[in-house]
Design brief:
Largest sheet of chain B: 7 strands, antiparallel
Distance between the termini of chain B: 63 Å
Oligomer: heterodimer
CATH architecture of the largest domain in chain B: 3-Layer(aba) Sandwich
Strand content of chain A: 15-25%
Distance between the termini of chain A: 43 Å
Strand order of the largest sheet of chain A: 1-9-8-7-6-2-3
Largest sheet of chain A: 7 strands, mixed
Number of helices of chain A: 12
Order of helices and strands of chain A: EHEEEEEHHEHEEHHHHHEEHHH
Structural class of chain B: alpha/beta
Order of helices and strands of chain B: EEHEEEEHEEHEHEEHEHEEEHEH
CATH class of the largest domain in chain B: Alpha Beta
Number of domains of chain B: 2
Strand order of the largest sheet of chain B: 4-3-7-1-2-6-5
Strand content of chain B: 25-35%
Largest interface: A-B, 72 and 55 residues
CATH superfamily of the largest domain in chain B: Nucleotide-binding domain of ferredoxin-NADP reductase (FNR) module
């Protein structure tokens, strides 16, 4: 990996260079919540001044730029009792994600494994993922962040460059040649020993700020052992089955497909829409049988998929510990609490 | 001068030919197929014979017993159906009307063009069963997926020892594939049919399917040796039948079940068919009983 340092002011120049001909998505402040805290979101940004790089976790992940909530898989034209199907992967233009936190980059890496693995790679995702240029930005841990427990507090790959604020300068990790070529347009320097020390100090400072933890030791086995645990029913009683947790999750990719006839009756479309396993008909089959009829079945399934099944398939959890689901949950259910209760910790 | 990042086109180099699991362009590949004939099997079930329209594509399509296809009617919907039999680009699907798509299918005439994706999923290891006894158990619509291994047995009857088909439904009106029973019997297959509730015209056995399984086990002295079993039916039937077979000494790895789940892609992406995180579409729909026993909430 190549490391460089730039003066803080230079990042504006970098933004200007990138903005010349490219679409930039970055964190912006949308509004203030009831407590007066800012609400952040990923949006298209054309001026650096709108960008809030010191942002805390956004309410919604950047998912809609590579895994849209609704997307057409195919369109049909109907004619004389016959039809033709055309498929569009919806590749339009490369997109720059400016200022993604490590958890969100790791979420992309996890999605890559299942959506771009060697069994039936999904072109709709790949087309967008392969056209992402990602600039990571070091975060400040929030009280709900448990990424350190999930091993996703740092990103090792899956981005183009990663920026860390080390006080008077910005420390930059460069992964791709595209990133290096962009950097050539601004003033940068080789990091000195003092910069290395400053970087390590910044990271150590960040690590001290984590307060939420999840014990993942033997979690796959414990989840199997505690499958009939009463705790699931208790959480199920609280759960509203609204699906908010999946909507805000950066790694929830489950979907449904529906087909609709166009209003002119000459065409039809097949649309994919992201779905949540907490919604009642997720596992319901034709004829009415529901494989997970109760709320606790469905809530449990979500934990099984994230913390057990995905581990079995890819040797890592599907959860990145961003804590968005706990923040969005209307019933106040958080991952650290659920897992602690299943582990028998109070 | 603009600094525009060049577009990365995932479809280049474009590979044409047989849709492969690792070919990104095969994801939404649909065979266009024509419904060539429709037979009414019962009040709610129909058998659709579907032929892939393109002669070249017809040659490419091949499936093994137990696999399924995704059938699509543009604008109406898409759903998975197990293949009842398949030959030379022709597919037979036995479909019960019970949802949006299937109720629409119930109203279409032959000549309608549908889309087929697949075949997907695992299959019954028929070759492994050569030289052994075979017990095929079907409950209700479970006969639809079971018809593919039955056709295999018919074609390769000399390779198997005794073959028993046990088939049970709620009432005599629900029996499907009635026109084939004599043909199966002619091929030296022991066909046992049982209904839960008989009507005046019914002369066969009445009761639960487990009654016949019990009879067969006791006929063989309470022990099943060198025997394979395939069980298709409602989840509750798996539990009872497989428990009885296990008790009679049949290893769990020699019992195969075909599971039903909701599916939207058939390719391990949509997660609707997940059991834990085992995709029924990739690791199934055919599982041996050992694997199913180890999956939570599978049956």
């Amino acid at each position: 990996m190549i490391f460089r340092v730039i003066a803080k002011e230079e990042i504006k120049r970098l933004f200007a260079v990138l903005a010349d001909g490219n679409r930039i998505i970055g964190p912006v402040e949308k509004a203030l919540d009831r407590k007066g805290k800012p609400i952040y979101a990923f949006e298209e940004v054309s001026e650096f001044s709108r960008l809030r790089l010191e942002y805390t976790t956004t309410t919604l992940p950047a998912k809609r730029y590579f895994l849209p909530f609704r997307e057409d898989l195919a369109v049909f034209r109907m004619e004389d009792g016959n039809w033709t199907k055309s498929v569009n992967y919806n590749i339009d233009t490369p997109t720059i994600l400016f200022g993604l936190h490590a958890c969100d980059i790791n979420a992309l890496n996890k999605l890559d494994k299942v959506l771009m693995g060697n069994v039936y790679p999904m072109p709709y995702y790949a087309a967008k993922r392969k056209n992402l240029f990602i600039i990571g930005y070091e975060c400040t841990p929030q009280p709900f962040c448990f990424c350190r427990s999930m091993g996703t507090d740092t990103a090792l790959h899956g981005f183009d460059m990663f920026i860390t604020d080390i006080g008077d300068k910005l420390f930059i990790e460069i992964v791709s040649d595209t990133a290096y070529n962009f950097l050539k347009n601004i003033k940068f320097a080789e990091p000195q020993e003092a910069d290395h020390v400053a970087y390590m100090r910044a990271v150590a400072e960040k690590n001290k700020k984590f307060t939420a933890h999840v014990d993942t030791t033997d979690l796959t086995k414990i989840l199997d052992m505690e499958f009939q645990s009463e705790h699931w029913k208790q959480w199920g009683d609280k759960c509203l089955s609204c699906g908010s947790c999946s909507k805000v999750c950066p790694t929830c990719y489950c979907y449904g497909v529906e087909e609709t006839v166009d209003i002119d009756l000459e065409g039809a479309r097949k649309t994919k829409f992201l779905y949540s396993c907490n919604i009642i008909d997720f596992a319901q089959v034709a004829g009415g049988h529901n494989f997970r009829p109760d709320r606790h079945n469905r809530l449990k399934y979500r934990y099984y998929h994230k913390h057990r099944g995905f581990v079995e398939a890819f040797e890592e959890s599907l959860c990145v510990g961003c804590g968005r689901c706990g923040e969005a949950c209307l019933a106040g259910i958080t991952v650290p609490e659920v897992i602690a209760s299943i582990r028998g910790e109070e | 001068m603009s600094n525009k990042i060049p577009l990365f086109d995932i479809t280049e180099p474009h590979r044409k030919g047989i849709p492969r699991k690792d070919d990104i362009t095969s994801f939404e590949f649909t065979y266009k197929a024509e419904i060539t004939s429709i037979y009414k099997l019962s009040e709610t079930e129909k058998l659709y014979q579907i032929q892939i329209a393109d002669t070249e594509e017809r040659k490419r399509f091949s499936s093994r017993p137990g696999q399924f296809v995704m059938l699509e009617l543009p604008g109406i919907g898409e759903a998975p159906f197990s293949i009842s039999s398949s030959y030379d680009g022709n597919v037979e699907l036995c479909i019960r009307k019970c949802g949006n798509l299937t109720n629409f299918l119930d109203r279409v005439d032959r000549g309608t063009f549908v889309g087929l994706r697949g075949p997907f999923g695992t299959s019954f290891p028929m070759e492994e069963m050569h030289g052994q006894d075979l017990i095929l158990v079907a409950g209700g619509i479970g006969l639809a997926p079971l018809r593919a291994p039955i056709s295999y047995v018919q074609k390769n009857r000399s390779r198997f020892n005794s073959v028993d088909i046990i088939y049970g439904t709620k009432n005599p009106q629900q029996l499907i594939f009635t026109y084939q029973y004599d043909m199966w019997r002619k091929d030296d297959v022991n066909l046992h049919i049982i209904v839960e509730k008989a009507d005046d015209a019914w002369k066969g056995s009445v009761g639960m399917i487990t009654k016949i399984v019990e009879d067969i086990i006791s006929q063989r002295g309470g022990e099943l040796k060198d025997t394979y079993a395939i069980v298709c039916g409602p989840p509750v039937m798996f539990k009872f039948v497989c428990a009885m077979l296990t008790k009679a000494g049949m290893p769990m790895q020699k019992m195969f079940v075909s599971l039903e789940r909701r599916m939207h892609c058939g390719m391990g992406k949509c997660c609707r068919c997940n059991i834990g995180s085992t995709y029924t579409c990739l690791s199934g729909p055919v599982f041996d009983y050992w694997s199913v026993m180890n999956l939570k909430e599978a049956i």
